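Human: I'm a chemist; would you kindly supply sequence and structure tokens for a protein?

Assistant:
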Amino acid sequence: MESPRALGFLMPAEWERQSATWLSWPSNPQLWPGHYSLIPAKFAEFAAAISRFQPVRINAAGALRKEAESALREAKADLSVIEIFEIPTNDVWCRDHGPLFIKNNRTGEVAITDWEFHGWGGKFTATLDNQVPEKIAQALNLKRFAFPFELEGGGIEVTGDGILLTTEAVQNNPNRATGRDNRAFESAIREGLSIDEILWIGEGLANDDTDGHIDNLARFVNPNTLVAVTEKNPASPNYAPLKKNWDRLSAMTSQSGSRLNLIELPLPEPIHLAGRDLPPSHANFLIVNDGVLVPLYGQKSDELALGILRECFPGRKVVGIDCRVLLIEGGALHCLSQQQPA
């Protein structure tokens, strides 16, 4: 079979028009110790916020369907634009186990790329999660391109014009890269997503279960501009890695050859919940049609981040959502979701 690139497909940028956002409903109380009773309502709040901008598609199999429907009604979600699919999952992180959608701009056809997902290098059970892209392709009757490499949606940022940003901490981690043909891996990314240049930074946030996903560190807001988290406290374990990342980003250029514009995004203080120090990040925002949903953490950095992102997205409504309870599982809004292009 010809590659997606050869057929004219590419992975669009997140700020391009979308037909829906995908979510996976929570199903395992053990992953939210002592707090699971709060999670369905928080998920419904998030889905309701998305539904005010665009359709939402939710993986919720069996009895979870009724739970989701009840919680969504309580959250006053726009049920006319929400569709529930009988697709079981192990966990909620649709950014990583969901498909990476691609689009042919000549024909308008949308297709799916299906990459291996094994719970961030084998940390967690993911047998059901790994089947999600294929099941979505079947449900939507979309063409599917399968690749034999681990690649998580939260681990990449694309501009839609040939640039992809990622981290060495994830892609070169032995828990993903041992025994891998690295040339074949990079070729698969280039051919699968139509990427011309792969840009690399180093480490992720301390205590990040993913080993350092880019969507907690640096995000494109347009093809020439990045927001990147910075730490001002030299005593923080994040100070040196984030400074090194900033220095590397400062030397990067866009597809046009011009130096990228860099905008600082404040890093919240670590949050101690469920016996762990958790890594909050305002970079884990989600772009939807005409809107941006921003994770908040009850800290001074909340208003700063909202102000910065309002300046970055002047044509969109920027909405904050408290994500402290979601962080117990290690992520926030972007980690939970996956966009399907229009």
